[in-house]
Design brief:
Layout: E1 4-12, E2 16-21, E3 24-29, H1 32-36, E4 44-54, E5 57-63, H2 66-75, H3 83-103, H4 107-110, H5 118-128, H6 132-136, H7 177-187, H8 192-205, H9 211-222
Helix pairs in contact: 2-3, 3-8, 7-8, 7-9, 8-9
Length: 226
């Protein structure tokens, strides 16, 4: 199983990219939002990946963050949701938007994805709502790829110099605000589900709110008279 790829972006198509990893080109399918956030061809890139294995098909799907990958995996566990529909949802909402919609039971938001009807959207919300809190609390950016040393011919002394290291890979800008706010509310004694729901609602009402503002808004909604 291939869990991550780091290499040079060769080209970008409408629904996939090719990444050259030490001379091997990998085709990786991605959500539209993920594609839009990747660097230009010729630059270094790193993606978490998930592999679809069938008798007549092998496909790699790429994600900028572990949270995005986990939402893809969870969406694919819902009956009627395949890889195409899961990517469509992530393209329409992004991982944070997907988490908020499912946490708040907002099936109408899920319906924004191409090919997702009302019944399927409702099923997604119902089946994944209890699992949303843990994913919302995830916020792990991908690390940069290590520099590669020049190969040494057999019997030869190792060279002193290494190939010039590539520029560090741009790390995705991970939005830690929601994860930090959820963690703070959990530390105050609220359950993960309560905290995630409160923070998701606060983030929906005030998308630009910082961590402290999300915590205050979450606390207010969790109070008996909130």
């Amino acid at each position: 199983m291939i869990g991550r790829l780091s290499g040079q972006l060769v080209y970008r198509a409408t629904d996939h990219v090719m990444i050259d990893v030490q001379g091997v080109g990998y085709l990786v399918y991605c959500a539209e939002r993920t594609l839009a956030g990747l660097p230009a061809p010729g630059e270094m890139v790193s993606l978490y990946t998930d592999m679809l294995v069938r008798e007549d098909l092998l496909q790699l799907f790429g994600f900028r963050t572990l949270a995005e990958k986990e939402w893809y995996r969870l969406l694919c566990t819902v009956q009627g949701v395949g890889a195409k529909a899961a990517l469509a949802i992530l393209s329409a909402l992004g991982p944070d938007g997907t988490g908020r919609a499912i946490t708040l039971g907002d099936a109408n938001a899920v319906r924004q994805a191409q090919g997702v009807g009302p019944k399927l959207a409702q099923r997604i919300v119902m089946e994944l709502k209890d699992k949303a809190a843990n994913v919302l609390a995830m916020s792990t950016p991908i690390a940069a790829a290590p520099a590669m040393a020049r190969p040494v011919p057999r019997g030869a002394a190792p060279p002193v110099e290494l190939i010039e290291a590539p520029e560090p890979l741009p790390e995705p800008v991970a939005d830690n605000r929601q994860a930090d706010a959820i963690s703070a509310l959990v530390n105050l004694g609220y359950s993960m589900t309560e905290a995630a729901t409160a923070v998701a609602r606060a983030a929906q009402d005030a998308p630009e709110a910082d961590t402290a503002q999300l915590i205050r808004a979450g606390l207010k909604s969790l109070m008996p008279n909130g």
